[in-house]
Design goal:
The complex is a heterodimer of chains A (113) and B (115).
Chain A: E1 4-5, E2 11-14, E3 19-25, E4 33-38, E5 45-50, E6 54-58, E7 61-66, E8 71-76, E9 85-91, E10 102-103, E11 107-112
Chain B: E1 4-6, E2 10-13, E3 19-25, E4 31-38, E5 42-49, E6 56-57, E7 65-70, E8 73-78, E9 87-94, E10 105-106, E11 110-114
Parallel strand pairs in B: 2-11
Antiparallel strand pairs in B: 1-3, 3-8, 4-5, 4-9, 5-6, 7-8, 9-10, 9-11
Classes of the chains: A mainly beta (113), B mainly beta (115).
Chain lengths: 113, 115
Amino acid sequence: QKEVEQDPGPLSVPEGAIVSLNCTYSNSAFQYFMWYRQYSRKGPELLMYTYSSGNKEDGRFTAQVDKSSKYISLFIRDSQPSDSATYLCAFPPPGGGADGLTFGKGTHLIIQP
Amino acid sequence: DVKVTQSSRYLVKRTGEKVFLECVQDMDHENMFWYRQDPGLGLRLIYFSYDVKMKEKGDIPEGYSVSREKKERFSLILESASTNQTSMYLCASSRLGGASTDTQYFGPGTRLTVL
């Protein structure tokens, strides 16, 4: 079983739609959960992070974590063409430390005007 | 504004050449990372460093080495480039402290093609 599973897409939706992006993970020791956004020909940038199970909202974005199911989601409300990007879930090393993040493969999202 | 810069956006090299990819950050971060990003495989950690002259292997270190002589600079070295090292290379940095929510800031990437 792969450590992180994420559908690569592409996921194409019309402007204004609600978008749901998801990752499943197998390592129950993961404590923090991040979403990075990567525009074409750019490096990833942190969008949101969460710690506990439940929801965290930031503007049009909501991150949801279900630790019991090892499942995280990112919802985008009122999607805009500028949201078109690749979205990567990311997991810091359990216990902290300087190690790198474990990334999902990323979902390529296209918002059609 | 935080900044991670990489020496080249695009690079074309021949098989067997020695290749240097440079990364500089201006945020006084202790941690620096090199990833490669490939379609269908996502981002994979090659090496990381948590201090000057310190380095640790990531998930795919084979065929690569790194150098960190100064805090702000982290170099990735391909001793003898091969075609399977054609990829997008991303450098990142973060501050030390063990806080797992510390953001990793990424550079724009270097797209390396090995012919």
